Amino acid sequence: MTQAIEIHPGQGKQPLHRDDTRFLWRHPNYACEARLQIMLAMTEFTQETGATKVIPGSHKWDDERRPEPEETVDAVMAVGSALLFIGSTYHGTNSSDKPRLGLTMGIDQGCIRQEENQYLSIPFDVLKGLPEEVQRLLGWDAGENFMGWVEQGGKMVSPITHLQSDDVPRSLGLIGGMH
Ligand SMILES: O=C(O)CCC(=O)C(=O)O
Ligand SMILES: [Fe+2]
């Protein structure tokens, strides 16, 4: 998923949470993380402007332990810097006296459903013009376990193969036409 998040004065707190709650993830889960989250600072992130508050090490906690505000640190960042954290890390925000703008991008495991449905969010003609690496990141890929395959000409192929073939405009004509 992708979002621009501008926090305004007086908006108050976003409670401490784990983003992998979306996927009903249980903790600790040493086998696999659901998500890598990227928060890119578009304005200065300081304690005064409402930097994201994170609890380092909280990805190791079980589901019983509650996060407390005094355990957080502010992700202080200059414009253009990025905070990377995994889906099981507790974090939240607090508003301040100036607006603060961040761009967030979550990259989820190929074996779980995307939080934002990128197949429908990105207009098809825009998608076709993106670099292959970005198309794969948007979900047009099969994971190592071949999750998400498409049948094409009687074969199971990766979505990226399908996207690059002549078959795809036919199968997605309706979606492309919706934008
Ligand atoms: O805006 C922030 O600093 C964090 C936002 C966030 O954690 C979320 O929307 O899940
Ligand atoms: Fe979050």
Structural features, described:
- This protein has 2 domains: 2-108, Jelly Rolls, CATH 2.60.120; 118-169, no CATH class.
- It has 5 helices and 10 strands.
- Strands 1-8-3-6 form a 4-stranded antiparallel sheet, with no helix packed on it. Strands 2-7-4-5 form a 4-stranded antiparallel sheet, with no helix packed on it.
- A hairpin with a 2-residue loop joins strand 9 (150-152) and strand 10 (155-157).
- The two termini are 19 Å apart.
- It has 179 residues and is α+β, with helices and mostly antiparallel strands.
- Residues 17, 19, 91 line the site of fe (ii) ion.
- 2-oxoglutaric acid binds at residues 5, 14, 19, 39, 52, 91, 93, 102.
What number of domains? 2
Strand order of the largest sheet: 1-8-3-6
Q: In the CATH hierarchy, what is the superfamily of the largest domain?
A: q2cbj1_9rhob like domain
* CATH architecture title of the largest domain: Sandwich
Bound molecules: 2-oxoglutaric acid, fe (ii) ion
Overall shape: it is: globular
Helix content: 10-25%
Tell me the radius of gyration.
19 Å
| Average of pLDDT | 91
CATH class descriptor name of the largest domain: Mainly Beta
Reading the helices and strands in chain order gives: EEEEEEEEHHHEEHH
Q: What would the CATH topology of the largest domain be?
A: Jelly Rolls
Distance between the termini: 19 Å
- Percentage beta strand: 25-35%
Report the major sheet.
4 strands, antiparallel
Low-confidence stretches: none
Tally the helices: what do you get?
5
Query: What is the number of E strands?
Result: 10
Secondary-structure class: alpha+beta
